[in-house]
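Dear all,

This email documents one entry for the complex benchmark we are building for the journal club exercise. For each entry we list the sequence lines for every component of the assembly. Then comes the predicted three-dimensional structure of the complex as a token string, followed by one or two observations. Please use this as the template for your own entries, and keep the labels exactly as they appear.
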Amino acid sequence: MGCVHVVWFKRDLRIVDHAPLVEASCRGPVLPLYVVEPELWQQQDASARQWAFCREALVELRQALAALGMPLVVRRGEVVAVLARAHRHFGVAHLWSHEETGNGWTYARDRRVAAWARSQGIPWSERPQFGVVRPLPSREGWAGRWEARMASPILPAPVALEPLAAVDPGSIPSVAELGLADDGCVARQPSGRSNGLVQWHGFLTQSSQRYQRDLSNPARAVSSCSRLSAHLSWGTLSMREVIQDSRGRRDQLLAQGQPAWALALHRFEERLHWHCHFMQKLEDQPSLEFSELHPHTAGLRELSADRLAAWSLGCTGLPFVDACMRSLIATGWLNFRMRAMLLSVASYQLWLPWRDSGLHLARLFVDYEPGIHWSQCQMQSGTTGINTIRIYNPLKQALDHDPRGLFVRRWLPELAQVPAVHLHHPWTMDGETQRRCGCVLGRDYPSPIVDWSAAAALARDRLWALRRGAEFGTVADAIQRRHGSRRAGLPKTALARGRRGGVVGDGGVQQLCLDFNQR
DNA sequence: AGTGCAGTTGACTTT
DNA sequence: TAAAGTCAACTGCAC
């Protein structure tokens, strides 16, 4: 009979607040295992920058576990094959891991692992690490469960692990050894729990003071946001410890007479709540990674290789959009507002299917979190049916959040000498001005690939026409009941969402007020 | 000093 | 987490 407890590390690369590790270590010898799955890293949403971040975290995790007596064991291959080998060698008593709300590939892989464990009579215990509820019978009461989880005590790391004799820890492959092409992330943020903690304490004690002011500014957000997203995605920090630290700091700031600063931290905590809210959608409906939540919006967009390539490389001819894309390529991170703008431009002005633009962004995000990412792709593309259509005006965003053009000049050197009055819309330069500033459109920088305002107007008309169509609201109501936030009270109905509804032509009452939360 | 008017601001609605 | 349009209240100014 087996005696080893396998702790399978996935996107939870820490030893603090790690329930599977704690529970396993109470029961017997632990085999801490990470499986490098080549097939996972060949998926369309995976990239070299993500592996590089994961790899650094693994190196530090291995040290932390070694200090407890048993270093991280790394094996390369298909998970079931690796587990089967471990079982033959040691005899596995129990498999432990965190629940993962991953993409379709990891979902299918987890089902294979479950089937294998069942066939071998090995129990597999999964523990939650976010506010995601599995299975979720209904959205009612969800926020309360999130709160209960985040408020429960942090689990300290085990004091020691019983060493397993004669186990080769195995090497952690480099980006090249895993066969991943370099993807130009020349300024990626540092990984590993120790770096995550340094970043976090810097935010708590310093930069969170500027959080609210700088959140939407793509240049300043880099140093005024928490930058914890990748650490939360790869699990080097646990959300629970972040929430609890933040609340403690908030109390301290209030006691010190800093209410505005405390409010900024509160806003930050609210975003962590939304983090789980969006992950829950993919947990409940894995198909939203691939197909439109509202079926009436399926097949609306048309894929154009040229438009997709121009957008992907930051060569659309709209400087602020291109600067955002090029900064994302180089750093692997972008603030929320500009991520939404990039998607909005792809889905509306460029009329591209969100799945294609979404895959490109997924690869560029070091902090790629499937549940948030695919929910956001659908939301910013108007395909959920339950959110209002938000078409960003990239020129307005440029003037609001980069009025002096510093961000654009930094990321688009070819525009360095363009006069300020033309910078955000260089197509307004006449030929003579272009030659004088060394930026000839079509030669040094692209001419706009579409007429931005006409394209936005066309997209808006198409989407709103669809929404007015028969049965659109009825279908949307069902989606709202399943996925909608309950924060504001009852789920909104099509009527309360503002669809032109009610009985028309009878001369009587056209609308009932169903929204009891008004006023 | 009060009135009328153009332009501005902010809340709210529609797309 | 949008943007544009509408409308009423407000402001500054000329008479």
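Observations: Residues 259-284 of chain A form the longest helix (26 residues). The radius of gyration of chain A is 25 Å.
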